[in-house]
């Protein structure tokens, strides 16, 4: 498996960039590490929150690996949490803020161990961009559609959730996509009478197909037992999208 296909190696690269960052303030250092525009405070803050979630996921994954020295592999995590903080984003970035060289070396062992025991199937970057473009296009179609106000508002909210799930995939993996699909199916079942009444609306059919595609993609990345495996086909058949 390529290093870039493992989120632990991605996080190692982030911490490496923090280690070598020179000058500027803390927000600019994080933007540099996440390869984001330095003036985009919202994106930087969102990435920090998601990376802190990723630390929890990686820590949990390590604890599930038998036969390793858990105390050693978990050692760099507290320092990583200290470094990846939402506090004082406007303050200067000094030597005290950098990830220590010893902790970075320890996290390299973490990434290597996780890549061997927790292999990941990664979605190509071009597929991520294609999904984002499809969601943006569908957002406009739903807005301009003749769907009832309540159903239209729900679908637009769900498209926003789906877009955020796709955008955060690089950090959170398939978890956010699974959550988006489960939420969408629950909401569509709640609106099933409106779906039946508007089954011929192209924007509705495209939305349900999009949710099905995201579900298939999430399953490919990380197979899981789907509680919605009968509900989604039911909705697709109801709307004439199958």
- State the total count of DSSP E strands: 0
Structure classification: mainly alpha
Radius of gyration, whole Å: 21 Å
Q: Mean of the pLDDT scores?
A: 83
Number of domains as seen in the coordinates? 2
Q: How far apart are the first and last residues' alpha carbons, in Å?
A: 35 Å
- State the helicity in percent bands: 55-70%
How would the global form be characterised?
Answer: elongated
Task: Name the helix and strand elements from N-terminus to C-terminus, one letter apiece.
Answer: HHHHHHHHHHHHH
Biggest beta sheet attributes: none
Stretches where pLDDT is under 50 for at least 5 consecutive residues are: none
Task: Write up what this structure looks like.
With 242 residues, the protein is mostly helical. It folds into two domains: 3-117, no CATH class; 125-239, no CATH class. It is built from 13 helices and no strands. The protein has helices at residues 7-20, 26-34, 41-63, 70-73, 77-83, 101-117, 125-144, 149-167, 169-172, 175-190, 192-197, 202-221, 231-239. The longest helix is centred in the first third of the chain and has 23 residues, at 41-63. It is elongated, with a radius of gyration of 21 Å. It starts with 6 loop residues before the first helix and ends with a helix. The mean pLDDT is 83.
């Amino acid at each position: 498996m390529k290093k870039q296909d493992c989120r632990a190696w991605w996080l190692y690269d982030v911490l490496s960039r923090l280690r070598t960052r020179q000058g500027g303030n803390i927000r600019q250092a994080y933007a540099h590490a996440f390869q984001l525009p330095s003036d985009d405070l919202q994106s930087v803050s969102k990435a920090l929150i998601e990376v802190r979630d990723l630390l929890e996921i990686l820590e949990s994954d390590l604890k599930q690996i038998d036969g390793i020295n858990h105390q050693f592999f978990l050692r760099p995590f507290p320092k990583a949490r200290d470094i990846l903080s939402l506090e004082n984003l406007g303050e200067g970035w000094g030597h005290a803020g950098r990830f220590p060289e010893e902790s970075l070396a320890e996290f390299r062992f973490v990434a290597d161990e996780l890549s061997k025991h927790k292999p990941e199937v990664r979605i190509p970057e071009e597929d991520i961009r294609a999904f984002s473009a499809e969601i943006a296009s569908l957002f406009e179609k739903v807005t301009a559609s003749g769907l009832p106000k309540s159903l239209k508002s729900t679908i637009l909210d769900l498209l926003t959730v789906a877009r955020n799930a796709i955008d955060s995939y690089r950090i959170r993996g398939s978890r956010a996509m699974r959550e988006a699909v489960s939420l969408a199916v629950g909401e569509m079942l709640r609106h099933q009478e409106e779906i039946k009444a508007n089954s011929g609306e192209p924007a509705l059919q495209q939305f349900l197909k999009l949710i099905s595609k995201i579900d298939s993609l999430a399953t490919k990345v990380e197979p899981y037992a789907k509680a919605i495996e009968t509900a989604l086909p039911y909705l697709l058949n109801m709307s004439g999208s199958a």
